[in-house]
Amino acid sequence: MANEVILLDYWVSPFGMRVRIALAEKGIKHEYREEDLRNKSPLLLQMNPVHKKIPVLIHNGKPICESLIAVQYIDEVWNEKSPLLPSDPYQKSQARFWADYIDKKIYEVAGNNWTKKEEEQEAAKKEFIEALKLLEQELGDKIFFGGDKLGFVDVAFIPLYNWFRGYEAFGKISVYKECPMFSAWANRCMQIESVSKSLPDQDKIHDLIVELKKKYGFE
Amino acid sequence: MANEVILLDYWVSPFGMRVRIALAEKGIKHEYREEDLRNKSPLLLQMNPVHKKIPVLIHNGKPICESLIAVQYIDEVWNEKSPLLPSDPYQKSQARFWADYIDKKIYEVAGNNWTKKEEEQEAAKKEFIEALKLLEQELGDKIFFGGDKLGFVDVAFIPLYNWFRGYEAFGKISVYKECPMFSAWANRCMQIESVSKSLPDQDKIHDLIVELKKKYGFE
User: Fold this and answer.
1) From CA B64, how far away is CA A25, in angstroms rounded?
2) Residue B133 at interface with chain A, using a CB cutoff of 8 Å
């Protein structure tokens, strides 16, 4: 059977970026379809009727929703090249734990950095840095979370890179000063083609943050 | 190597019940340790320093946190008996999707049924029933979500059974009238020993809900 792979996505979605990186790591040919989130395509609504969200990976007509589930699916189906999850069940459980931590904790506290009002930002910043430091500890002296090679946790986490640089630019927080190991790790990830070509241009993200801050009144 | 398995848990936790059912399904001997959540044990804080929550499965001294991750771990390590996840990657991704839906959606909207004030309860009830109906659709005419046998989604979902019966008792909502297929499925699950012996007595849950409603003023 021919492998027809379509990705319904939106350029700035860190969740979409995860799936893009996994597809690129495995070298899977696919059609990328940019969605207009204010006017979602009938295909998106049909393929993800529950959440109606991108990204959706469509493999031979069948949808896989939720980014971490899609990345695991890609890893299981295209298992000959660039394994993302370790084969050992314990190591695998730990990779899943940290990816889950990124979804449950990091996204929440990272978002607070630019949506909270001035007076709440100090607390938001502190919580954010503490949450990042836990991940730095988990990285330890490894090159990547996956060891010598990019793994599941790296794929889950690196899409936040550009957003963090956005915070930097707005002068509210220096991720690089506070978490130098995170910074060094992110730079190593960005050297990998599957990552760099899957992440959008930093200036475009910066402009978007400016626009969103204005639109929603977070100044 | 001997398999030393310890479960740090709390009797009423639906997340803990998932791990209990998985251990029972596989017939894994283990030591159950009830935690006092107001005075957590040093072992719990050491084994789950990130979230400091039960359940924690400890296998030969190493912790696995987060219930769905622990259930997957159990399924992968003790893989000779009672498989919980399908082996086919697509079917596996769908089981993960629905288990994730239960965590993200069902727990949230179910909780609203007894924490919201009177005037908000009608909307909460409607949302809850709609969320359940999506799961009923997914079940379709299968015996269990896992097909002929208990599977990952069944294990993720059935711990809510007693709580739903609690809503019934309080007369706010008739889960059984609104979702008869859910009711029939839950009854089938409760016929299975690994489930029935892992779920607490219904009267104890009822008493707990009464106590919590009083304590937090949800009347």
Assistant:
1) 28
2) no
- In chain B, which residues have their Cβ closer than 8 Å to the Cβ of A70? 93
ipTM exceeds 0.90, yes or no: yes
Alpha helix ranges (H) inside chain B: 14-26, 42-47, 67-77, 89-101, 107-115, 118-139, 152-157, 161-169, 175-178, 180-190, 193-196, 202-216
Question: Mutate which of A65, A71, A93 to test chain B, going by most B C-beta atoms within 10 A?
Answer: A93
**Residue listed under structure tokens 């449950």:** A104
Structure confidence by residue, pLDDT tens digits, B188-218: 999 999 999 999 987 888 788 788 778 877 6
Give A-chain residues touching B85 at CB under 8 angstroms: none
The predicted-structure confidence for B34-63, as pLDDT tens digits, reads as follows 999 999 999 999 999 999 999 999 999 999
**Does the distance separating the beta carbons of B97 and A66 come in below 8 Å?**
yes
> Which domains does chain A possess?
5-77 (3.40.30.10), 89-216 (1.20.1050.10)
Question: How many CB pairs lie under 8 A apart between chains A and B?
Answer: 50
